[in-house]
TrEMBL record:
UniProt protein name: Uncharacterized protein
Domain of life: Bacteria
Length: 179
């Protein structure tokens, strides 16, 4: 009986820990420096939890931006994207995993493979979004970034996204301030 209680408590603490890291990571996604990225890497490294693994992969990719040594930079990019690919493959319908991977891919659009991954993930979220996702995460960001991608390639798609973006005034304003 005591073993069961201990196992249940460990599982619950692991879940709470993962949720805290997720919130911290997404709230500070664009502000994390190299030291903070290393801290997150160390805390998520040994976890088998899908959420921690996707964050770990994303942090590896973000860490590549701080590397000047090309072989190491490409190693971080490749390992991070591969790790995220495996997590999404195991849990194909998880919108949170796709959100993190798509958000990470958007930051490295200069690499050809990233654009395709970003579009696949954010289009998947756009099609399958539910109220739970909209309440916890920034769906306006999904629409805005998709709009930015389609702005020059697919005017019709961009126009339809722009109409939906009117519901998110913070992002809608960005489009006109940037022009």
């Amino acid at each position: 009986m005591k073993k069961r209680i201990i196992i249940i408590l460990l599982l619950l603490s692991s879940y709470v820990f993962s949720e805290n890291i997720l919130n911290y990571y997404l709230n500070n996604f664009d502000k994390l420096n190299k030291a903070e990225l290393n801290k997150i890497l160390n805390t998520t490294e040994s976890s088998k939890n899908g959420l921690n693994k996707i964050i770990h992969g994303s942090v590896l990719v973000k860490k590549a931006k701080h590397e000047w040594f090309l072989p190491l930079k490409y190693y971080y990019l490749y390992s991070g994207m591969l790790e995220m690919k495996e997590v999404v493959k195991e849990n194909f319908d998880n919108l949170i995993y796709r959100y993190i991977r798509g958000k990470t891919a958007f930051e490295i659009l200069s690499y050809d493979f990233a654009r395709k991954i970003f579009i696949n993930d954010f289009e998947y979220i756009y099609i399958r979004v539910n109220d739970d996702f909209k309440n916890k995460f920034d769906f306006g960001e999904v629409l805005y970034k998709l709009y930015r991608i389609y702005e020059f390639d697919n005017k019709e798609k961009a126009k339809s996204l722009l109409k939906k973006l009117k519901e998110y005034p913070n992002y809608y304003r960005l489009i006109y301030y940037e022009k």
